[in-house]
Amino acid sequence: MAIVKVENVSKRYLLGEQVVEALRDVTLEVEPGSFLAIAGPSGSGKSTLLNIFGCIDNPSEGKVFVDGQDVSGKTPDELAEVRARTIGFIFQNFNLLPVLSAQENVDYPLLQLRELSKAQRRERVAYYLDMVGLTRYAGHRPNQLSGGQRQRVAIARALATHSKVVLADEPTANLDRETGRGILELMQGINRDAGTTFIFSTHDAHVMDMADRLVHMEDGRIITLETKLAGVESV
Ligand code: ADP
Ligand code: ADP
């Protein structure tokens, strides 16, 4: 069973008088354990698709399934619950809270999981900061960390809620090539060891190369879907 799936999804935005077709009849099924890249020019619909997968945006048409559940008819509260327990987000500008330390940033989404005691939260935060190699920086605020370190805090934060899927919108866009590659290698290691599904958008050909599946988007459509070893299939 797919961990996330969109079926015949279209998304239209109204910009004044103008209708923007951000997604046109997109169908995509992502198997658990995938390391999937979404490539395509700026404006091709990559962020919109990630936002719909992450239930932070609704499609104009079509169906969305997360972890086997049809999320179409859910209320905002129910969607928040699905997100909190299933999905983690990573952004190109890191989106960390500037006044909180690295460990407080990782702890923050855990507050939504009411069943966790303070001690359990502390243990999880320590575990994931260690996983991303930032134990020594637990008390540092984002502005005391390098770009690569900030993105590693964001990865720890995305994983700490035991997310099954991590959605990453251009996670390496604001990093130099070498640091970006390190971030992707960290994500890839977690994908292999823990089986966490990663779906990330990118412009960087080196980053695309690391994916096990590659989706090419253009003008709101999926143009090709490539599976490593299996070659290219047109859609
Ligand atoms: P990408 O991530 O590939 O750059 P996006 O998904 O951000 O593409 O955008 C797809 C299209 O939808 C673009 O034409 C963009 O201008 C438009 N779009 C995205 N978000 C909005 C919005 N909130 N309001 C209006 N138009 C939007
Ligand atoms: P990364 O490759 O993880 O991005 P860098 O090579 O950019 O890390 O950073 C090297 C070291 O410099 C790091 O150990 C980090 O702690 C330190 N550093 C970077 N920026 C700052 C800062 N603003 N304040 C304190 N230390 C910093």
From TrEMBL:
GO terms for molecular function: ATP binding; ATP hydrolysis activity; transmembrane transporter activity. Residues 4-235 form the ABC transporter domain. It comes from Kineobactrum sediminis. Gene3D superfamilies: P-loop containing nucleotide triphosphate hydrolases (3.40.50.300). It comes from the Bacteria. Keywords: ATP-binding, Nucleotide-binding, Transport. This is ABC transporter. PROSITE patterns: ABC_TRANSPORTER_1, ABC_TRANSPORTER_2. Belongs to the ABC transporter superfamily. Macrolide exporter (TC 3.A.1.122) family. The lineage of its organism: Bacteria, Pseudomonadati, Pseudomonadota, Gammaproteobacteria, Cellvibrionales. GO terms for cellular component: plasma membrane; transmembrane transporter complex. Pfam families: ABC_tran. PANTHER family: ABC TRANSPORTER ABCH.1, IMPORT ATP-BINDING PROTEIN.
